[in-house]
Amino acid sequence: MKTMLRGNEAVAYAFKLAKINVFPMFPITPSTLVPEMISKFVANGELDAEFIPLDSEHSAISAAIGASLKGARVGTATASQGLALMHEILFIASGMRLPIVMGIGNRALSAPINIWCDHQDTMAERDAGWLQFYAESNQEGLDLILMAFKISEDKRVLLPSMVGLDAFVLTHTMEPVDIPEQDQVDEFLGEFKARYRTLDTKNPATFGAFGSPRHYMEFRYAQHLAMERAKHVIDEVFKEFGEKFGRNYSKINEEFTEDADIVFITMGSCTGTAREFIKMKRKEGKKIGLIKITVFRPFPKDEIRKALKGKKVVAVIDRNFSPGFGGAVYGEVLATMYGETETKIIDFIVGLGGRDITFQTFEKVLEIAEKSLEGEVEKINWIEVDKEAVEKEEMK
Amino acid sequence: MKNDWLFAPGHGMCAGCAAPIIVKHILAISGENTIVVNATGCLEVATTEYPRTAWRIPWVHVAFENAAAVASGIEAAMKKQGEKANIICFGGDGGTADIGMQALSGMVERGHNVLYVMYDNEAYMNTGIQRSGATPYGAWTTTSEVGMVNPIGNIRPKKPVAEIMVAHRAAYVATVNIAFLRDFKRKVEKAFSIDGPRFLHAISTCPTGWRSDPSKGIEIIKLATETGLFPLWESEHGEDIKITYKPKFLPIEEYLKTQGRFRHLLKQPEYIERIKEDLKAWWRRHGVEI
Ligand SMILES: Cc1ncc(C[n+]2csc(CCOP(=O)(O)OP(=O)(O)O)c2C)c(N)n1
Ligand code: SF4
Ligand SMILES: [Mg+2]
């Protein structure tokens, strides 16, 4: 049976279904409803967990590490400035190989302060050693949180995960969501047992030791191997989830790509708009395809290379921006496609700070993508930005 | 001879450093059923160079400013697991009074069952003797340099961290000095007998940063208390502090002259007067005229 849920509610239900033991938190728009709901679940006995309202996101993720290292299943949620405040500790969570799962309401970073959607917050943490998943819908948000626990806790992985849901577009918008049955989730996740060494007075160990140049690099290499193994584990878990719950996931999702000359690459909620736009254009006889990236870390290089092989133009829709370079997804696709000289890869910076992504946005993207079939176009294209106003102001 | 301290010898802390002595006596009282969270700093860096460790109990270091938050998470997990053990945080003055103040304040306010111990060597020693909020007035450090324009060095008085913890109504707060071992042990034992957030402020000689004779580590901090500069007291649940040792009130110069960091002051009595005024005022507030 489907229930109407906001994205934040879907995330909170996922944490409840995963029977987390500890939930450290600090509120921030747009993810605040997640801790509010967990607080309610704990208060009325629906969830038997320790809820810790901390003094900051920095402390929240620090407490998450403490709890996880003590052998608890830990979830938390944040966004934007909160995630940025966690930055230092994110690397320690992955360096200590703790399977913490975090829901993110993907939101722009200050300044100017802005509470609306883009992917800058999580993109800025792509080197933090966390697995990164991006949801297109609230259903995906719920499912990905559940799967993230299973993937993160796998002995071959033992890395933390973050699952991004677009601010407001998903976090605050009602959608029909199938909430799985508890016994099915129990069966899927199994009883939580820390598959790593914990703070145990019967079996003392030192964690977070000082790593000299003689040893540091091996710890980093081990993380690299874990990320590589995660690629396989993700496939396994996605498959098992599909068999059990009837909803199928893959690291990248290809639609209409077989005959496509131009392929759009999207992440998150704007995929739905892109899909409808592409369907419309295909009716007009235009050969456009769509790739949605669900797993951004580990980056699905093999899948993307295979999917884009022989395509003429790739339009990367970037809801983020690395000043001095361009979009982050563009950079990754470009590196992945190195040597595939017949494929033109073009970047489109769109929808920053919650600017709507509409058919009109994609019309402009398509126009430039089509132009590139005949000649050179800009590599990095800012769409629907008032360039004149900015230039005028800069001239002052 | 068998060494069965839970804090093992063979670590890399300097000769004459008081921190390892403080730690091993606290662990001896706490026993094996203990989990330690250590903030970044000398104690952490010098005792756990992979693959060796000086800690014979579960120990974790996460970062500089968050030991209290990490401990909060450990305590929450233990509650869920129905386990009982002593959780001790060790943080330097920098990791406690400055960058870790917020996390500590939160931990105490939320009432976590954790003992937080600040070993106070009155500067950021691990990074090479920079001033902290707990550096006393008149001390030279590498970021409170003494010169023509500033003849004093550190121009601000020491942040009263333990008193701030009393204001938080922590379950137990005490200042401790390893040179007064009986008082020290009694307070540590008491700390372990009380539930809730507890805080110990331990003065800790740093011969390297204080520019003092490594063989005089304990004598020097003994003088800190005997001059009245490091008073020994305790407080339960936010009650008024109780002095637990009446000092001899030796002239403070006796203490200052043992350390190179105060050398410039000895030639400038007007600044020493200022320290004396502050000292008198503190003791007067606690009912003692000196
Ligand atoms: C966020 C952060 N800022 C700065 C540092 C550098 N740092 C490491 S230890 C330290 C000083 C520690 O001082 P204190 O807490 O007094 O301990 P001590 O070394 O004196 O024992 C500093 C500044 C760090 N590790 N992390
Ligand atoms: S620098 Fe000071 S605090 Fe650090 S180990 Fe040496 S004596 Fe101890
Ligand atoms: Mg210090």
Quick one: how many beta strands of chain A? Answer: 16
DSSP helix count of chain B?
Answer: 12
CATH class of chain B: Alpha Beta
DSSP helix count of chain A?
Answer: 13
What is the share of helical residues of chain B?
A: 25-40%
Shape of chain A: globular
Number of domains of chain A: 2
Task: Tell me the series of helices and strands of chain A, N- to C-terminal.
Answer: EHEHEHEHEHEHEEHEHEEHEEHEHEHEH
Helix and strand run of chain B:
HEHEHEHHEHEHEHHEEHHH
Largest interface: A-B, 43 and 44 residues
Major sheet details of chain A: 6 strands, mixed
Radius of gyration of chain B: 18 Å
Which class of secondary structure composition applies to the elements of chain B? alpha/beta
The second-level CATH architecture of chain B is 3-Layer(aba) Sandwich
CATH domain class of the largest domain in chain A = Alpha Beta
Small-molecule components bound: thiamine diphosphate, iron/sulfur cluster, magnesium ion
Low-confidence stretches of chain A: none
- How is the largest sheet of chain B built, in terms of strand order? 2-1-3-4-6-5-7-8
Please describe the structure with a list of short key phrases separated by commas or semicolons.
heterodimer, A: 396 residues, alpha/beta, Rossmann fold, six-stranded mixed sheet, five-stranded mixed sheet, globular, B: 290 residues, 8 strands, binds thiamine diphosphate, binds iron/sulfur cluster, binds magnesium ion
